[in-house]
Amino acid sequence: MKVTKDAARSARQLLRLSHKDGTLDDDRIKEITTKVSEAKPRGYLAILQEFGRLVRLDVEQRQAVIETAAELGAQAGNAVIEDLRRKYGNTLSAEFKVNPDLLGGMRVKVGSDVWDGSVKARLTELKNKL
């Protein structure tokens, strides 16, 4: 379903309304979706679809997924989280995953930003250059 400019604008306004003290409020999101569903304004399905997409993107922007080849120590993990919070704000939450396929190094994903410092990525880059 293609989202019209009006639906996208309405969804952005709803997203702004769903924030409380700079973070998304689950109760406000539920209330907004309920009211829009009940009122059924013109193009409400497209509005709700775009609103859901914007909420998902906002949530992903506040979550970091940190993949390492081996278990990361508590001190090193805290240092990584601290650096990410300086860049993305204190509301950032982090999830650590062990991925032996990386061979070594680390891959960090925050929203649509990805930093890949893994050995696997470097080997793939070298392979592509040759």
What does this molecule look like?
- The protein folds into two domains: 5-60, no CATH class; 63-129, no CATH class.
- β3, α4 and β4 (93-98) form a beta-alpha-beta unit.
- It has 130 residues and is an alpha+beta fold.
- It contains five helices and six strands, in the order αββααβαβββα.
- α1 packs across α3.
- It has helices at 5-17, 26-39, 44-61, 74-88, 119-129, and strands at residues 19-20, 23-24, 63-68, 93-98, 106-110, 113-116.
- The protein starts with a helix and ends with a helix.
Shape label: elongated
Radius of gyration: 19 Å
Largest sheet: 4 strands, mixed
> How many individual β-strands?
6
Helix count equals 5
Strand order of the largest sheet: 4-3-5-6
Q: Which range does the strand content fall in?
A: 15-25%
| Count of domains | 2
Question: Quaternary arrangement of the chains shown?
Answer: single chain
Helix content: 40-55%
| Structural class designation | alpha+beta
Measured between the Cα atoms of the first and last residue, the distance is 43 Å
Low-confidence segments, ≥5 residues, pLDDT <50? none
| Average pLDDT | 89
Strand and helix order = HEEHHEHEEEH
What are its keywords?
two-stranded antiparallel ribbon; 2 domains; 6 strands; single chain; about 130 residues; 5 helices; elongated; about 55% helix; alpha+beta
